[in-house]
Amino acid sequence: MTPLQMHASFFDRNKDGMVTLKETYQGMRAIGCSVPVSAAGSLFINGFLSPKTRPPGKSASASLPIYIENINKGKHGSDTDSYDSQGRFVPEKFEQIFIKYAKTNPNALTSKELDDMLKGNKDPGDTKGPIAAQGEWKLLYDLAKDKDGFLQKDTIRGVYDGSLFYKLEQARSSSKIKKS
Predict the structure, then answer these.
(1) Which residues of the chain have a pLDDT value below 50?
(2) What is the pTM of this model?
(3) Which residues form the EF-hand domain (predicted)?
(4) Rounded Cα gap, residues 134 and 115, in angstroms
């Protein structure tokens, strides 16, 4: 599996190679998103990616499945290019995020630096990509920033192979157990 497929696979709760609306919702809740964010996010994500990833000859479905094998076809513009067109991780592009935008701490981004990165990555004439990028990065910042308001480089790297999602889910499960 490519890193992008591994990223998407976290949301494939039943491991059948597809991510339905319900599974995206469940995955978002598992990593700590609120009910409204998970509901809106699953509609937006699956609504955008399902038609792009649907194999030729496959009928549309009300569950708007995202086909993990074709997830690279859902890559949007105005992003960091840390995934290539095949869904492989590009370390040089990842490092460029920090070289260009991490001014306060060379291994992390502040909220303002994140905003600067989003502006800097906007492709001229691209209307959908910036919306997707903004949603992804702002959600990541809200879920994974540290106590000092930094989004750490190692944390961000975990998004690209999906490992961060498992850590967030585990942390959320652990905190629920402690509250019981």
Answers:
(1) none
(2) 0.93
(3) 11-34
(4) 8
